[in-house]
């Protein structure tokens, strides 16, 4: 089984790392001015996505540079729509200038988790995307609230480099073992995904049907982990540079 391999980029990582990851991944989630990112970083990511035929996605986040957008978020639907129009719209215009189109939207950090906690907010999120970007898909937690509400719009996402709780949510980054650290763990995780499962920190087997797999660009061994996933021949399907 082949999966899309996505990565959060344009978040202040070194340019060499951005390009190294673009060589391996099949989808890029580009920070667009909320938790991270600016015009220069967006333009650089778009250029590299086009060069390496990587699907281009927007990675909007809370306006929280200090906390990197990872704190808990409370947001109304009107504010959510404005945030999406500002951030996704900015990346969309930059992409259009290089002849590229957006393939997907993936929330960052606090926004990602807020739409999983709040069903009304999740419905509003999907409605906003359908209204303004009807040809764009949403990357959301496999088996989660957004995925269940928007089955035909969502590519369900699993995480290559993060540990899971028994209920399918991610272990908080405040926990010591939140992030996978070595290649063997990553190889084992890929084998789990191929079986349609993931094993939690308490060794519970959780059933998942991911279509896309995320490696975070700020994970210390992100490039190595992405290469391991690609070498396992479980990831593929490059996008078409527009």
Low-confidence stretches: none
Shape, principal axes of CA atoms: globular
CATH architecture: Alpha-Beta Barrel
* Beta-strand percentage range: 15-25%
Task: Trace the largest sheet across and list its strands.
Answer: 1-2-3-4-5-6-9
CATH superfamily: Glycoside hydrolase/deacetylase
User: Quick check: average pLDDT?
Assistant: 93
What are the secondary-structure elements, in order, as H or E?
EHEHEHEHHEHEHEEEH
Helix content: 25-40%
> What kind of sheet is the major sheet?
7 strands, parallel, barrel
Structural class estimated from helices and strands: alpha/beta
Distance between the termini: 26 Å
- The number of distinct helices, counting runs of at least 4 residues, comes to 8
CATH class: Alpha Beta
Structure explained in plain terms:
The chain has 242 residues and is of the alpha/beta class. It has one domain: Glycoside hydrolase/deacetylase (TIM Barrel), CATH 3.20.20.370. It has 8 helices and 9 strands. The strands form 2 sheets. The protein has a 7-stranded parallel barrel with strand order 1-2-3-4-5-6-9, surrounded by 4 helices. The protein has a two-stranded antiparallel sheet with strand order 7-8. The radius of gyration is 16 Å and the shape is globular. 47% of the residues are buried. The model has no long low-confidence stretch (mean pLDDT 93).
């Amino acid at each position: 089984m082949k999966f899309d391999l996505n990565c959060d980029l344009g978040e202040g990582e070194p340019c060499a790392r951005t390009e190294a990851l673009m060589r391996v991944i099949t989808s890029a989630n580009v920070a667009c001015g909320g938790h991270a990112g600016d015009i220069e970083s967006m333009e650089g990511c778009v250029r590299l996505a086009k060069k390496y035929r990587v699907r281009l996605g927007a990675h909007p986040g809370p306006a929280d540079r200090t906390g990197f957008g990872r704190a808990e978020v409370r947001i109304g639907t009107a504010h959510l729509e404005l945030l999406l129009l500002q951030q996704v719209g900015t990346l969309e215009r930059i992409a259009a200038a290089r002849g590229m189109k957006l393939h997907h939207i993936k929330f960052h950090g606090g926004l990602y988790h807020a739409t999983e906690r709040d069903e009304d907010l999740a419905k509003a999120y999907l409605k906003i995307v359908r209204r303004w970007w009807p040809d764009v898909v949403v990357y959301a937690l496999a088996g989660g609230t957004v995925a269940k509400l928007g089955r035909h719009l969502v590519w369900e996402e699993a995480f290559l480099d993060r540990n899971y709780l028994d209920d399918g949510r991610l272990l908080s980054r405040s926990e010591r073992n939140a992030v996978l650290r070595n290649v063997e763990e990553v190889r084992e995780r890929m084998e789990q995904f191929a079986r349609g499962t993931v094993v939690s920190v308490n060794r519970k087997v959780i059933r998942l049907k991911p279509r896309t797999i995320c490696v975070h660009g700020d994970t210390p061994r992100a490039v190595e982990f992405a290469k391991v996933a690609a070498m396992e021949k479980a990831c593929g399907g490059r996008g078409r540079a527009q």
